[in-house]
Structures are given as C-alpha cells and as structure tokens.
Amino acid sequence: MFDHALTEEQKLLRDAAREFAIKRLYPNAEAFDKAERLPDDLLSELATLGYFGLTIPEEYGGMGLDAMAYALILEEFARACAGLAITLSVHNSLVAGAVRRYGTDDQKRRFLPRLASGEIGAYALTEPDAGTDAGAVRTSARPAGDHYILNGAKAFVTSADYVKMYLVFVSTDLNRGSHGLSALMVERATAGLEVGKPERKLGIKCSDTRAVAFVDSPVPKDNRLSAEGDGFKIALAQLDHGRLGVAIQALGIGEAAFAEARKYAKQRHQFGRPIAEFQAVAFKLADMKLKLDATRLLIDRAIQKLMAGERITLAVAEAKLFASETANWVANEAVQIHGGYGYMKDYPVERYFRDARVTEIYEGTSEAQRIVISRAVLSEE
Ligand SMILES: Cc1cc2nc3c(=O)[nH]c(=O)nc-3n(C[C@H](O)[C@H](O)[C@H](O)COP(=O)(O)OP(=O)(O)OC[C@H]3O[C@@H](n4cnc5c(N)ncnc54)[C@H](O)[C@@H]3O)c2cc1C
What we know:
The chain is an alpha+beta fold. It is built from eleven helices and ten strands. It has helices at 8-25, 29-35, 40-48, 67-80, 82-102, 105-116, 231-267, 279-307, 313-337, 349-357, 366-379; strands at residues 121-124, 140-144, 147-158, 165-171, 181-187, 193-195, 209-220, 224-225, 269-270, 273-274. The strands form three sheets. The protein has a four-stranded mixed β-sheet with strand order 1-4-5-8. The protein has a four-stranded antiparallel β-sheet with strand order 2-3-7-6, with helices on one face. A two-stranded antiparallel sheet has the order 9-10. The protein is globular, with a radius of gyration of 21 Å. Flavin-adenine dinucleotide is lined by residues 90, 122-126, 131-132, 156-158, 201, 209, 358, 361-365, 367-368, 371.
C-alpha cells in the first residue's frame, strides 16, 4: 500500500491499472453513472486484460496475484469508478475466492477458467428477510436425485445481470437455521431462474443490482462447494475477503474526493485569495489526509495478515469500518469545500459523496463491524 514496501512487480501492476483508469475510467465514469450501467465493451476489455482473474491461479487461466497486488489494482479502479471496483471485488473476492478455497479439483477446473476469462460471477446471500441476519436464509434446496430443486428469492445481488454464474446460499434443511445452509454454483441459464429489474440506487449506479428468484430451479449437486451445512461458514469466511475489497473501494473514493477538494481549494478565490489559504479549509484538507493515511495503514495491516495466513476477521472489520466512515466523511467535506458547486453534477465530488454511502452498508453494515470488533474487545482479559 505504501510505495516503499512494494515489490517492483507490484508497482508495475499498479501503474498499469492506473494507466487504464486514467484512459478508460476517469473520463467516462460520469457517463457510466448516468447510464446506470457499465458498457459491455469495457467489461470485455477488462476480461481481455485479465482483471477478472486477478487472484485465480495461473493454472486455471488467472493472473495468480498476491493480495497486495490485488489491492493496489482495486484501489486504482475504485479511485476512478467505484461501481466498477465493486463489480471486480465481488467477482474476484467473493465468488472466485470461494471456488478457489472450497471447490474440489473438478469444480476448480469447471468454474475458475470461465471466471478468469471474464464470465462474471455474483454472490447471492441476502434475502428480503435475511440481511445482517444472514443465517436466516429461506431459499430452499430440496434434494431430487443428483440435483437440488431451488425455490426462493435473493435481494440486492451485485452484477446480477452482468453475470454468467451465481454463488447462491440456500437452505437444505430449514429446521437447522444457519447450520442448514449450503453454497451452490448456479448457472445463469438455469430453468426457473429469473433476474429482476435493476434497482434504482443513490450511488455506484453503474454497478448492477437486482433481485434473483428461483422457481423449481434444478442445480446439480456436483455444484455444491464443500459439504451440506457448510454454507454459512463459507459465506462468512468469504465476506472477510469481500469486506477488504469494500475497504479498498472506500479508500479509493476517499482519495478521489480528497484530490478534487485540494485542487479546488487552490483554484477557487474568495476575498481575493485562494480558499486554501483560509485555515478552516486547510485544516479540513489536513484531516482528510490524516484519516486516509490511517485507513491505508489499517488496510495494509489486514493485507499483511492475509498474506501471512493469519485470521483476518478482526483486522478486516476494523479496516472496513474505518475506511467506509472515512470515505463518507471525506466526501462530505469535499462537497463542503466546493460550496454550492459541490452540490452540482458538474463536479465529481457529487458522485463521490453518493458512491461513498453504500460502503457503510453492504458486506456488513458499520453496526455489524462494531459487533465483530466489540466481541473481540470483550473476549480479551
Ligand atoms: C448496492 C448494494 C449491493 C449489494 N450487493 C449484495 C450482493 O452482491 N450480495 C448479497 O448477498 N448482498 C448484497 N447486498 C446486501 C447487503 O449486504 C445488505 O443490504 C446488508 O448486509 C444489510 O442488510 P439489510 O439491508 O437487510 O439491512 P438490515 O439487516 O435489515 O439492517 C437494518 C439496520 O439495522 C441494523 N442492524 C441489524 N441487525 C443489527 C444488530 N444485530 N445489531 C445492531 N444493528 C443491527 C443494521 O446495521 C442497519 O442499520 C447489497 C446491498 C446494496 C445496498
């Protein structure tokens, strides 16, 4: 995360992502936001460049990058287009990561090359009545020979319409609560699978979000990751990785808002001088820089733990909570520094302000992160 600690290869990968972001994302992010969709040719280009296989091992057609290189690339994209960053994060961290960690050799051979080639994956855990209480999933999977028959509905599925496959969390035994959950890879083309209309959102508008429903949908038992009943464990473990992606997304949004605020503060004159010369404005910039650096340190710590094979739940919860609250605070202050112009769509801080909001909600709300952190605090002597 900090330049001095990076290898040459990590720097090269970051610089390539930065160049792509400057050429293809920065100039178009406003248009993507307005269209509420990422263009198909952009997704194809990203696929060709390998960005859908960032952490997928090379033997399965991916780039096989370490967590640091992955984070650096995601940050560059998040700075330019937060909606694209979450699309990549869900695909790489939540879906491909689950197959990589929990799939059999056969499942890895069947799914990872497709995911690496740009067949996008979605993660379908949330339901209308199962949000923070993710163990309350009611989408059922009834065994029928070598298949399960799925019935139920998922809510707020990121990339629902961009994808070729979903990682769906189902209950094979509704009496067992979270212990009855299983994780299934489900093809988009499955009979009875219906993708809903796009949700109309406050921010990250170019990221696709929809409900997905199942009516008597057959899914081969061969597509179940790990054993029956392991679904909740897989869902939570993957969320540790996804939350790290959200923390990086939030850092990128915060960095972008900070850069715009600094530029504007130096350009905008009032009372015959740049507003940056008023201490009230300069101190806002100082606090922005401080909080973003602290965010980077927390993310860096989580990545180091991940790369050392240590448990990351607590470090990631702290990073995600601080990063998302910082992104919202920084974006708010960036709007303030822009005055009335910050409230208009003519300046990107308006979009950053909207995009930041969801980072405190998805993949575990700020309250959920505080539950994780407070439990750890209270379990210590
Ligand atoms: C744009 C977007 C994209 C998303 N993408 C996906 C996706 O790809 N896949 C997916 O599965 N889900 C996705 N989600 C769902 C997201 O993860 C949930 O919205 C989130 O986990 C919160 O669940 P909920 O909306 O049902 O809120 P609720 O759980 O109903 O929470 C409402 C409020 O109550 C608080 N609360 C709930 N329980 C507690 C508690 N025990 N203690 C203290 N406070 C509590 C919450 O913090 C929140 O403030 C997405 C959501 C959005 C907005």
